[in-house]
Amino acid sequence: HRDLIGIGQLERHEILFLLDEAEQWVTLNRQATKHEDLLAGLTIINAFFENSTRTLLSFEIAGKRLGADVVNMHAAQSSVKKGETLIDTAITLNAMRADAIVIRHGSSGATQLIADKVDCPVLNAGDGQHEHPTQALLDALALRHALRDRGEAADDFTGLTIVICGDILHSRVARSNLLCLQALGATVRLCAPPALMPSGIEAMGAEVYHDFEAALDDADVAMMLRLQTERMSGQFIPSAREYHHLYGLTKKRLANAKPDALVMHPGPMNRGVEIDSEVADLIDRSIITRQVEMGVAIRMAALDVLTRRARGVAGWGDAA
Ligand code: CP
């Protein structure tokens, strides 16, 4: 079987394949609550060692819409609290014969560690500062749809300049999006205070900015990220007020970008810190709720594609 650990492990054609597979679910999700029993008889375990609203719920909804039995394990109520190691938890989950396991964990590499111990496909729902692949895929799908609504061809993002601004250092969303957007042809500008920018990130092909207005200049998209204070220890922590002063997306600041530039945010948002409400709620420009909508479709596609081989259907990679 194959796992979905990171965008870094995907070829461009595989990214496009997952986006194309998700399109059918975007259409059907708008028409009905449950579609078919594609995954009937399958058991999917969502093992979340970190808090989540969007990712956990959308994986659960995605599995149920396709007819699977979905079981959620919240670490706070699990035997992790009794000192069980991650490896032992993985062996335990494997003994239950799940057909797919979705994992969110606070440590980079934890999802791969579990994937190495279990017999079914593992989907990374965010591991530390490493990757959050389904987030980048849903962001790409939301952007594709927003551009199409404007009559622009958007199978890929060649020619687009996309600014990702926020706590890049701690952000798995930034890393997955950098890889995904670049694979789809976009120019990616990363913007953060110097203390929140990973050193050497230019080597991944990003343009690095510390001045947000300069980063926004003539940009097509502004993707905002929150300050991940829960991951900051012993380093510079800006106050919400000073951060907003320099890096908050205000309407005035957004005017530096293209006149119709789109606004994105993976959530959870801290309104008034990294983004003002009047920008987050901009009609036709902010696609933040559309990102959430696309999350269900992307996760349906990912669960379907990754379990194909076990279901006796030509699997992901078989046709590649
Ligand atoms: N974007 C995202 O991963 O949100 P949650 O933490 O609520 O899942």
UniProtKB/TrEMBL annotation:
PROSITE patterns reported for this sequence? CARBAMOYLTRANSFERASE
Q: Which Pfam families match?
A: OTCace, OTCace_N
Which positions are annotated as binding L-aspartate? 82, 172, 226
The EC designation for this entry is: 2.1.3.2
The entry's carbamoyl phosphate-binding residues are 54-55, 104, 132, 135, 267-268
Recall the GO molecular function terms of this protein's record: amino acid binding; aspartate carbamoyltransferase activity
User: Transferase among the record's keywords?
Assistant: yes
Query: Which keywords, in A-to-Z order, does the entry hold?
Result: Pyrimidine biosynthesis, Transferase
Q: Which GO terms describe its biological process?
A: 'de novo' pyrimidine nucleobase biosynthetic process; 'de novo' UMP biosynthetic process; amino acid metabolic process
Q: What InterPro entries does its record include? A: Asp/Orn_carbamoyltranf_P-bd, Asp/Orn_carbamoylTrfase, Asp/Orn_carbamoylTrfase_sf, Asp_carbamoyltransf, Asp_carbamoyltransf_Asp/Orn-bd
Aspartate/ornithine carbamoyltransferase Asp/Orn-binding domain location = 159-305
Is Transferase included in the keywords of this UniProt record?
A: yes
Q: In which pathway does it act?
A: Pyrimidine metabolism; UMP biosynthesis via de novo pathway; (S)-dihydroorotate from bicarbonate: step 2/3
Q: Which residues form the Aspartate/ornithine carbamoyltransferase carbamoyl-P binding domain?
A: 2-144
* Source superkingdom: Bacteria
Q: Which reaction does it catalyse?
A: carbamoyl phosphate + L-aspartate = N-carbamoyl-L-aspartate + phosphate + H(+)
Q: Name one GO cellular component term.
A: cytosol
Q: Which family does it belong to?
A: Belongs to the aspartate/ornithine carbamoyltransferase superfamily. ATCase family.
Q: List, alphabetically, the PANTHER family matched.
A: ASPARTATE CARBAMOYLTRANSFERASE, ORNITHINE CARBAMOYLTRANSFERASE, MITOCHONDRIAL
Q: How does it assemble?
A: Heterododecamer (2C3:3R2) of six catalytic PyrB chains organized as two trimers (C3), and six regulatory PyrI chains organized as three dimers (R2).
Name the job this protein performs.
Catalyzes the condensation of carbamoyl phosphate and aspartate to form carbamoyl aspartate and inorganic phosphate, the committed step in the de novo pyrimidine nucleotide biosynthesis pathway.
The protein, known as: Aspartate carbamoyltransferase
**Which organism was this protein described from?**
Qipengyuania soli
